[in-house]
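Weekly modeling sync, notes
Attendees: S.R. (lead), two postdocs, one rotation student

Agenda item 3: backlog of single-chain predictions. S.R. asked that every request posted to the team notebook include the full sequence so nobody has to chase files. The rotation student volunteered to paste the first one in as an example of the format we agreed on. Action items at the bottom.

Example entry:
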Amino acid sequence: MAEPSFIDQSKLRFREGEVIFRKGEMAQQMYIILGGKVRLYVSEEPKGDWVEELSKGDFFGEGSLLEALPRQHTALALEDSDLIAINRGTFLRMIRQNPEVSVKMMQRLAQRHRELGERVETLETSKAAHQAPQGPVANLVSVLSGRPYPILSHGSLIGRYDPSTGVHPDIDLTEEDHNLSVSRRHARILCEHNRYFLLEEHGVANGTFIRGERIQPGEPRELKHGDRVGFGMVVLFFERT
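Predicted structure, as returned to the notebook:
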């Protein structure tokens, strides 16, 4: 798609927790991911609801090449990430030099916009359901404080806030974890077909437990209503409503 010299000149490095761009900003470039992982958030701040996680080979921010409109999302590097920045002029030169590339890229753009539209529609439906009187579908409830931590409809990252990177987990156990036993990125809860699964992240030192049994990293375990769940020394109950 581009000469090596172009890649070298256009390559950017974003550190874990660094904002690539914010919702509402005006820009004239898109990005291709060479390595790492990027998450697109709904709001201006990189926390709460998000619509997509992207990795090597994916691209984002392409709307700025087609229309002079503000960014629709906030992009955050979830880990150290290498990107290529492509401005409008470079994009137009690529199209003129290789029409086949432009056709494939337009097809991919149409596909991604359709997928994003479907995800946003699902997210809005989920938010409306969470605002209804019946409340969230599922929570983790702290044994220590009794505080409920709502689980997002698409799943939640569990851990502690990292002040050095600014990364906020979806379920932040900082206030519960007086012994610092919870890792920054400790575990995830995944939701598939109205079933919930707990998955420990790699590199966790103090373990993740269901009903007192330690689970293995990378092996999802299904959660049932009333299950006692431990993240290091922090204990919560899984609750469905």
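Discussion: group reviewed the output briefly. The longest helix spans residues 99-131.
Action items: rotation student to repeat for the remaining queue; S.R. to check formatting next week.
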